[in-house]
Each structure stands twice: as structure tokens, then as C-alpha cells.
């Protein structure tokens, strides 16, 4: 009895050892396969700067603030010559690195591969010619945590995104976006800006100046609020002003603080101190404000008379519920993120475009005089420019375009993602003569794959045909399609401009480099509106002018609608030069952002 029990225990023990051994072997094989696959995926990625362990190329954010202040990182004091690169804005630094690594190079955010695209030809090739591969949006931890990958700007490409975007685009157009019906709202905001400038000029007896950022932000935001929320806020409204401050502060924290490390270590978002706690508080306050507005709309909704985007969205929700749509993506939760996208993305970029335009009118008085002369000749002194005047104001519009080219308020665009391992189908060709063009190594590799795959499929189909006539016949009929599909798969593991871009790679289109690309722009660092005019003074549309990106996510419509306002402001205030009335204060390390102060003329 004892011996039987002993043998049984030995059997169980032996079985356990076999299971453990099998599990260990499975894990080892899986790890080796994963490592091999990863090595294969990253064996031909673009070159780039060497990353730090764990944190990648963003290790500089781990350096304490006092060191940055002492050696030129954030405070700008006591900067030795060897450290001057740390003062370069991110888009300029990234563009400079392209001179070392090429127009396509790699960076790392933790373990996430990021590929930076520089120059017009490369950016166009990726986002236009290869849009099927580079159209998706990446999961950026900071954005994913706060947006849940909903809304329009950062939502992943797919059926839900297409339905939501189509609905929003149609609705916004119906409520006046890009149309003359929106002009009264824009002109009302312009009137407020001008009256406030006059008031501030009278009150500022010492000439100390004021910051125009909040005034312009309020005016721009009210245009968006009018379309989306159906209401305008007074420029002195404290609650609305607080919301705008929160949005600006949130963007600054995410882009210009240690909070960027959340993208490397997502759990940092939940730390109860510093900028990590502040970004959560900003998110809560913005959420409370916008959801309160949505609630008021729901309680006062009249489906027969929708007032704005929120009402139209709620009506669509009711219509889909009545139709029995069980998997509809239309919900109040999704609506909240759409409104947030409109406010945060639209307000920030448009405000900075307006401020930059005002600044360029200040520092280039000769251009300001030409713009003013053209507006006076076409529009006259009794009204401000209208969208109907655009065709008659070529130099004014060329000036607007040149300011956008010089500044590029979204210099690194919105990140894209490779939705599959990218490649270019490349073929070898024989010439009409007896000579043959020798394929390079990557093409030869594809040819070998084709031969091996063909042999495998032939053997496999023949075996099935011998054992199962019906199955074999069906497989033979589908052999050509299967072979073509499989060969396409092998070939698409080739390259994009000589490099493999693995699936899931984050793509950063450097729009700043596009607009400073000397191969498409003559003297790109010079401010010259005439580059957008032909010999007859007519406006030239250039393909390489893409200040808001290429394709479906460019988002330039609303900005182009409002962008005429600052020129009207600068050029309709009289013949007196604006140079004596404006000063400039730059915010360090905040891409494309500035503060413009108004000073009284002495």
C-alpha cells in the first residue's frame, strides 16, 4: 500500500516536472521568437540619436530644474557656449538633427519608436502618397488617458472616426463655418478687440503695456463657442476666462514640463504632487465646465429648432436611439471630447496665428503699409475686410500665408501612426537590350521569398489534391489569388524610402522643416510675402505650403476663416505705424507661442 502510494507520488512529481519543463520551454521559445521578430522589425529602421536606457531620447526631462536654470535649460541664465543647443526650440532642434541623420530618422520615447519626417518631399510622400499606411493615430499615453481616444483630433482612424468627423464637419458648415454667415460673429469679436485696445491705451498712462494674449484668445474662443455652444461670452466673464486659462495651462504642462514623462511611464499621471497633480486638476475643471453646458443643452433641447452643434448632436443621438441603433458611437461622452477638441485645438492654434500676424506687422512696417494701402484701395475706410474681398487682396493674403509659413503654429503636426509595417513594392526590370539591371539586396530577398513561397504552395496544394479532390480543386482555383496576396505581404515588409517602419511606429511630420526647406523655398529664412505672388501680382498656390498638415486632418478651414482679423486690426487703425504700440515677450520652450504686449505711444 505504501509502495503504491509512493509510486503514485513519484508519477505526479514526474508529471509536474514535465509540465514545468514544457512551460519553461514554451516561454523560452516564445521569448526567442519575440526577440527575433523584434530584431527583424527594427533591423532596418532609420538611424537616429542614441537613446538613454529606459526613458529613450527624453532623458533630459529627468535633469533637475536647478541644473537647467544654471546651465541654460529653462531659465536662460549663465548659459555657457557648450550648452547653447538646449535653448533651441524643439522644432528647430529636430530640424537640425536631420542634417546629421537624414530627413527620416528615429527617436525613442521609452520603448516606443518614433520616426521623424523632415522636408517637403518626405512628408508629402508619407502623408499623401502613403496615406493608407500613415493615416492612423497613435496611443500617446498622456492623450489616451485624458481623451479615452475619443473625439476627432486624436481618435484612431476607422468607421467611428469617419462617422463622427463627417457629422461634425457637416454640422459646422451648416452653422456657418467657412461661410459669410459667420462673419458677424467674427466682426463682433474684432470690434471688442479694437475697443479694448483703445481703452487699455487710455488707461496705460505709464506705458508699461499689457498682455494681449487673453484678449485675442477670448475673441477667437467666442467664435468657436458661437458655433459649438450657441452663445458668446463677455470678454470679462470670469468663468469663461478661467476656462481659457485652464486650457492654455494644460497644453503648456503637457508640452513643456516633466509631465511629458507620462508618455514613458504612464503611472506618473496619478502622482499626488507637482505638475502631475496639476494636470489632473486642470482636466477635472475643464470637464466640469463643458459637461455643465451639455447638461443645460439637454434640459432645454427643442429637436425641431437646434441652436448649435451640441443640439444637433443630441438630436442625432435621439434619432439613432429611435431607430434602434444598439452599437451607435453617438453619446454624450463622445460629444464632450468633440467639444474639447474644438476648443483646445482651435483656440490655441488660431490665437497664436493671430498674435504672430500682429507681430510681423509690427516688425515689418513696410509690409504693413503695403497691406494697409491695398485694403484702403479695395475696402475703403468705412468697413473692415470681408471674406468676399479675399480675391481682391492678393498681397494681403500673401502676407497672411507668409506669416503662417514663417511661424507654423503647429510645427510638429499631430502625430500619426504606421497602421502596418510599411514598404514600397519594388520590382526589377529587364531592359530592351540583353543587359539586366542588377537588383539590390532587398529586392533579391523578396525574389527568394517569392520562389520559396511558390514551391511551398505548389507542394501544399498538390498534397491536398491527392487526398481530397474537392478541397484540392478549390485550392487550385484560389492558388493564384493566394499567391498574389502572400507575395504582396512579403513585399510589403520592404521599405519606405529605404527604411522599414514597423507597425505601431509613431510618425512625427516636421512641418517646420517643410516651410524652411531650401529645396522648395528660395531664401526660406527671409520674410517675403512676394514669394506667393506671380509677376502680375496674382496669388500663387504652392503645394509645399502646408501650415496645418496634409490630408484629412489638416484642419485649416476654421483658421483660414478667422485669420483675416489681425490684418484688419493692424491695417485699419490708421496711418500711424504700429511699431511704437507693440512690444514682444517670448515664452521659452513653448513651441510657436508668444505674448504680445500693447504699449501706449508717447
From TrEMBL:
Keywords: Endoplasmic reticulum, Heme, Iron, Membrane, Metal-binding, Microsome, Monooxygenase, Oxidoreductase, Transmembrane, Transmembrane helix. Pfam families: p450. One of its GO terms (molecular function) is heme binding. Residues 419-440 are annotated as: Disordered. One of its GO terms (cellular component) is endoplasmic reticulum membrane. Its cofactor is heme. It is found in: Endoplasmic reticulum membrane; Microsome membrane. PANTHER family: CYTOCHROME P450 2U1 (PTHR24300:SF397), CYTOCHROME P450 508A4-RELATED (PTHR24300). This is Cytochrome P450, family 2, subfamily U, polypeptide 1.
